[in-house]
Structures are given as structure tokens and as C-alpha cells.
Amino acid sequence: MKVLPFKIPKPEQEALVYQEDHETVFYDRLHSHEEIQISYIIQGSGSLIVGDTINDFKPDDILVIGEHVPHVFKSDPKASPLSIMYTLFFTKKSFGKDFFNLTDLADVQDFFDESEYGMKIKAKPKAFKWFNNLKRQGKIERIATLLKILNLLIHSKKQPLSSFVYQKKYTDDEGKRMNEVFQFAMNHYHEQISLDQVSEKAHMSKNAFCRYFKKRTNKTFFQFLIEIRIEHACKLLNQDQDLSVANTSELCGFPNIANFNRKFKELKGITPTQYRQLA
Q1: Residue-wise over 182-210: b if at least 16 C-beta within 10 A, else e?
Q2: Structural domains counted in the chain
Q3: Residue 10 — pLDDT band, cuts 50, 70, 90?
């Protein structure tokens, strides 16, 4: 299977694909696909990279990822031994090239535009019920349910999953290179990582890698690495109340607690201690 693009398996002429994932970890390789993805997380939690940004996912999240948007899930087996996700895949032309251009569906266009950066939806329980009904429905019923879900999500509160998405489609080689870098960062964030190490993973010189990564994520590699570390710090602060802030700092790759506190506040707007109190 190629890293990029990732082709959704479907019978020929099938417009809407419903997929259930029951995995120890979700597909944890950087990939994109031509379909818009709407996923409901039933069980499991972990990290999700969309475009230039690392986010978390957890049960009852509804995630929307636009067409050709690079993303990678990384489930946390310690949080749950099994991750379960229900997903609908479709394209803007799944039901005919002009279907979503109908005047009655005008609101969908803004939703599609927003999906280009990915979205986490603060949805209502009604949406959860509709997702759970999908497995028992026929094809026509699923299309009707998709329209119901779209209508509800359009009018729900949304949180963007990224602020920048590289507009050009990745080649297979680019996808493999970026996947190597992302995987290295997500697996070794707690260690001290040098530019020599990460540029070697990308099979590039240090200067070439810095330009390459910045162009595709709109940030430096070390900015990206700090965000990964802070997201993992948030999980530790939530999960273990007995773990000190100093130990959290060390476990997430910050040997200097003052630097950890400063970076945490820059990204989250509050200190680690305040974050724990609000959790």
C-alpha cells in the first residue's frame, strides 16, 4: 500500500462508503485520499496530525477531514486496548457533479471549504445515534443519513484541526519522507532530537530539510516537535494527578522546567498547573 495517496477500497460505482475500524491502533501512516471523511470515534484516544497541527481525539469526537488533506492517526494503546471508529467517505461528485451545487444545498459549500483544514465538531447526541444506525441501513438509507448528518454538522460548533495545509498533492516519495519524519517525531518526542538525526531520517542535508519541512507545514521542525511534546504533556496532566509538573516536563522531552512552562503557556494560554486544575 502506498503511503500517499491512500485509496479507499470500494466497489466500482459506489458513491458513499461506510467503514468501521476496530483496531489496536488506527492507520498510523501519513496519508490522504480524494474522499471527504466524516468519522465518529466510538472508543479509543490518541493523537491526530492534520496539515501542520497535532490534535487529540477521544470518544464521541466527530472529525471531518477534507479531500487530499494529509493526516495521520496515532492511537494510544495505554488509554484503550481497542480503537473503534465509524466513517463515511464521499466526494463532492459522488452523487453527480452538480448535486452539491443545488440551491437547496448551498450551505454545504461553506462546510466543504472549512473541511480543507479539517474540523472537530462539537455535535449533539442525535448525530451519534445516526452513526450507530448506519451499520443496519441499506445504501439509500445511508445517503439519507449522510444528508442528515451534514445538516446537523453545518449548524454545529466547529474547531479547526489545522491552520495550514500544503496545497500541492504529495508525491509518493514526498509522502514517504514526511511520514518518516512524523513517525520519528511522534515516537521519540520524549528524547533530545538533533537536526542531524531528523534530516538523516528524511535523507536530506540539514539546510535542505529545514526548507523542505517549512514549505510543507509553515513551521520549523522544532516548532512542530514542541507542539507534539505539549500535547503529550496535556494527556499526562489529565491522566495522572500524582505526576508532578517537573516529572511531566522530563517525560515529554523538556529537561528545563522553566522552558516547559513557557512553551506550554505560549501554546495553551495557561500554565501546566492551571491546565491540570481545569481538567
Answers
A1: bbbbbebbeeebeeeebbebbebeeeebb
A2: 2
A3: low
